[in-house]
Amino acid sequence: MNGYGPNGPTFRVEQGKTYRFRISNVGLQNSLNIRIQGHTMKLVEVEGTHTVPTTYSSLDVHVGQSYSVLVTADQPASDYYIAVSTRFTTPVLSTTAILSYRNSAGLASGPIPNAPTNEIEYSLNQARSIRTNITANGPRPNPQGSYHYGNISVTRTIRLANSAASINGRQRYGINSVSFVQGDTPLKLADHFNIAGVFRLANIPDNPTGARMHLDTSVMEAEFRSFVEIVFENNEDFIQSWHLDGYNFFVVGMEGGIWTPGSRVNYNRQDAISRSTVQVYPHSWTAVYVALDNVGMWNLRSEIWARSYLGQQFYLRVYSKVKSTRNEYTIPGNVLLCGRAIGRRI
């Protein structure tokens, strides 16, 4: 934790006071679980969204995710273990930090708090219990009043299935049978200058095709101010984590098995959590709603670093025909031009 090994970092507290801990999983591939010996954690915030205050004895934090919890120093003045361990891995990797009371009477002792079992159901149920606090003040996206996401008509459904394959004798990962490769020019510059040959629009389908995986600079076109349903489908034994730059989305559904249109019956249309990174359990699906109100070229990727690096990403081009600084700022005059954009004028 915080760059230290076992028992490295120490967090000092005073008896009777309550502290906010912001927990972030900045790892490359493993989901984590955190516990504090003898204490509970009250979840109050997820990636900028106020949550319904819910108390947990342990909390799963998947790759790329962040949480704020309140911890009250309500135990006898002593030192206590803060334990973190990997989830769904063999072997389980663990480390510890120390929660140290002022005037502590002794060092941390006793058994380190046990981690949950590797069963998916515990983590899935916990994820479903995390909900937006609709009574709290906060910026959009906000399910109160006129902007109630559950009453907005979905204009498009996009199903994204991750997969792995060998291409030209090398390991690759893909989405809807497309494994992303970088173009020779930054995509935003290519789009701004309308440079041909860097990428093609609609070269990644809206639904899994079952076709053989291939390489491409995959860009999906989307309409500005549309309201989109994205279903992440994971048919592998591997837990996934997905992030969309430039946006938060409402996590309306999460379940094992195969997604069908009938799965929408069980969506949370009232107080689903709004966040930017979401997990998808093995052989499961996760559905999100997103209001595409941010013009630009946005990366949608697996937060599992090796998978993203080897092709499990693409760009979502949110486009408006109206060129206005109300929708998107102009490119700075001192932008560095490279690739096929060299010599162009802003």
UniProtKB/TrEMBL annotation:
InterPro entries: Cu-oxidase_2nd, Cu-oxidase_C, Cu-oxidase_fam, Cupredoxin. Signal peptide: none annotated. Residues 8-103, 184-321 form the Plastocyanin-like domain. One of its GO terms (molecular function) is oxidoreductase activity. Belongs to the multicopper oxidase family. This is Plastocyanin-like domain-containing protein. The lineage of its organism: Eukaryota, Viridiplantae, Streptophyta, Embryophyta, Tracheophyta.
